[in-house]
Design brief:
alpha+beta; 60s Ribosomal Protein L30, Chain: A; about 25% strand; homodimer; about 325 residues; six-stranded mixed β-sheet; Phosphoribosyl-aminoimidazole Synthetase, Chain A, domain 2; 8 helices
């Protein structure tokens, strides 16, 4: 029987893992590579570590409140580097553009990329531009890759019992803005799309593990951190900073807010005794930064609901997860 | 008046330069970046140089005699690094796949990538896999980025009067194979798609400049080398190793063979006194490696025809250049 690749393969949940098993076969340790993965690879360069990562973006809509495809492409790659503890040194920008794409829109995307590059002082250093026949691609596709240098790698497997789980701010807001725009639902929310470089740097020394919850949202990312760290995590429902409008819209659409992507937030593990201090520092950037749970001995992730019951949080399955990023 | 991006912007000729002027605005020197460009960026790391490059591939057909999209994506990035004098240390692989793409074809592409990675011992170290709704992309798009380390950067601006121009083998064969497949024209030719790492390494010390003539072919690449080196180049028509079938098909289609891409060849400058030696070494890999011209004082590129007249070679214009890579 012929098999075909389905949307579920790309949704960031369980099916994605199956598809990239193929990739994992070709991701081989060689020479000085200390760690290789989809998130980012680590190469030993003397006392420093070189981190290398990539991400593709084909999104709809291209422009949305708070950002556009250029902004999330650049911030996405910056953030993938910084959650690993690296200082990004340069980004590559490859674009495939459909013939007939308005130059004005292209200029807007380039300006947006330029703005982030200047604000973060992270340069775009190399690129590629291809133009395809009409219909070969829908408007524009952007792939960024990035390299960074780190003194210490923050691993997403580093959680230990006793750690607290913190978030740098409200979660899922990017996802809900994209959904709202697609469903023509009025909202004043703006995407959280941004570089988290400064935020991560401010509490780098306290971090035991970190991840930016993009595809698959908080659910996929917290489950991955628990599995890789071989620990149990208990999140407290009341403490998770979803915006009211986020909960209103996800409830209306029957979507689990835990699966909504953020594009400018991170979740992290911090040793228990530093958790309040770390959150206080993060609140200077975003006052919704907070402790959302804790790490225990055991396995799996649970949500302690408002009424005190424990509900398992699972890796999202199928294409119910909105394909937003 | 609204302006739209056209195919000419992506063909690798003059119009491409206009489009990427926008990009050049955002490609800024910062920190230890010594050189930044579309071809590859150079970062000083102690005594070594880190080279970083990227390329996107959306091609038709996906499979062709001698290769497939996976092979040219990996080889393309390896080759971009090695023509700059770098030893590739790792490649990233980002794929956007259309829903419904046959898993069998996906496996074939992954196997092909794996084969090159193992043969060259250059690992794929990080990646991204996105699946889009039907119609958002035509089958599959691949973007590779690569990093390499170099002791000495081979610049494509390094030509000096007295240098000889050499080619590592037959030119334009990849382009003619793709055209033949599209026009259903019978040929026994196979794409030249391959890694040129070993070939370049074997004569690295003799090189003054090098480039792999992909988009825009020999014409675009030799004009760029002449412009950047501020020299005149005279190529000898009789010495350029186009395959007989390449010339037959381009003549039939009215296409200039000088604009046809190769995916496993390089053209380079070598100091006059080392040219024969370098070519002899290269001929162990490909017996069509040869000297095709020389560098003089002055500007522009000329072709000395079989009857002895000088004909200017210009940067290809418009979409007459077949969009093949």
């Amino acid at each position: 029987m012929n098999k075909f690749i389905s949307l579920e393969h790309g949704a960031g949940g369980r099916k994605s893992w199956e598809l990239i098993k193929n990739l994992r076969r070709i991701l081989k340790f060689t020479g000085s590579w200390e760690n290789i993965s989809d998130d980012g690879a680590v190469f030993a360069l003397g006392k420093e570590k070189l981190v290398f990562t990539t991400d593709s973006f084909i999104i709809d809509p291209l422009f949305f409140p708070g950002g556009d495809i250029g902004k999330i492409a650049i911030c996405g790659t910056i953030n993938d580097l910084v959650v690993m503890g690296a200082k990004p040194i340069g980004i590559s920008l490859a674009m495939v553009i459909e013939e007939g794409f308005p130059e004005e829109d292209f200029e807007r995307i380039i300006s947006s990329i330029n703005k982030i590059s200047q604000e973060t002082k992270i340069p775009i250093v190399t690129g590629d531009t291809k133009v395809t026949n009409k219909g070969k691609i829908d408007k524009i596709e952007i792939t960024t890759a990035g390299i960074g240098l780190a003194k210490r790698i923050i691993d997403n497997s580093g959680l230990k019992p006793g750690d607290k789980i913190i978030t740098s701010g409200d979660l899922g807001t990017h996802g809900v803005v994209i959904l709202a725009k697609r469903f023509n639902y009025q909202t004043k929310l703006k995407s959280d799309s941004q570089s988290i470089f400064e935020e991560i740097q401010s509490i780098l020394k306290y971090l035991t593990a970190a991840k930016d919850p993009t595809r698959g949202g908080l659910a996929a990312n917290i489950v991955e951190m628990a599995e890789k760290g071989r620990v149990k995590i208990v999140l407290e429902e009341e403490k998770i900073p979803f915006k009211k409008e986020t909960l209103a819209l996800t409830s209306l659409l029957g979507i689990d807010p835990f699966t909504l992507p953020s594009e400018g937030r991170f979740i992290a593990g911090v040793r228990g005794r530093y958790a309040l201090k770390a959150v206080k520092i993060l609140q200077k950037f975003n006052k919704e930064a907070t402790i959302i749970g804790e790490v225990k001995k055991g396995r799996r992730v649970f949500l302690k609901t408002k009424i005190g019951s424990l509900k398992p949080i699972l890796m999202p399955e199928g294409k119910l997860i909105p394909r937003i990023c």
